[in-house]
Amino acid sequence: MHQGGGTAEPRGHSSLEERINAAKGDIARRLRYIRHHHPDGPFTLAGLAERAGVSKRTLSHAESADGSNLTLETLLKVCYSLGIARDAYFLDEQVFQQVNMELEASSGREAGCAAHVDLLCHLLTDIADSAAQARGVLRALPPEQRRPPGRTAPPGPPGPYGLS
């Protein structure tokens, strides 16, 4: 004990009150972030509160870093309602970063897949159009000009497009 009657704080460590306030600030920042950046969002306070089964006032206090009514139950309800299985999402910066990367990757994959499918459809359509155009040009050529110089026709029936 030191002369003030309480326990001395270790050097370089903040007081418990400072740590609590810092944790509330971190939770507020993470809650605002996920509310605005979740793949199903952005959510209003009322929308997320309804989805999580908590009051709008509780979420509002949590986002303002007041956190006077903030409980672990509330944090877990919000996580569950957003499909976040990592309970430490609001409490641990590393978990917060990992989950956000996973959410971004999954939403990016869905959007990316749709874009890739669209691109492949356009490419296949262009290939089919080019093949039809080439077939028409080849059919218009006299038979002796249908093969490059030096190549002979393979023995047997004509090819799949009736070209010999």
From TrEMBL:
GO terms for molecular function: DNA binding. It comes from the Bacteria. Residues 139-164 are annotated as: Disordered. CDD domains: HTH_XRE. Residues 44-90 form the HTH cro/C1-type domain. InterPro entries: Cro/C1-type_HTH, Lambda_DNA-bd_dom_sf. Residues 151-164 have a biased composition (Pro residues). PROSITE patterns: HTH_CROC1. This is HTH cro/C1-type domain-containing protein. The lineage of its organism: Bacteria, Bacillati, Actinomycetota, Actinomycetes, Kitasatosporales.
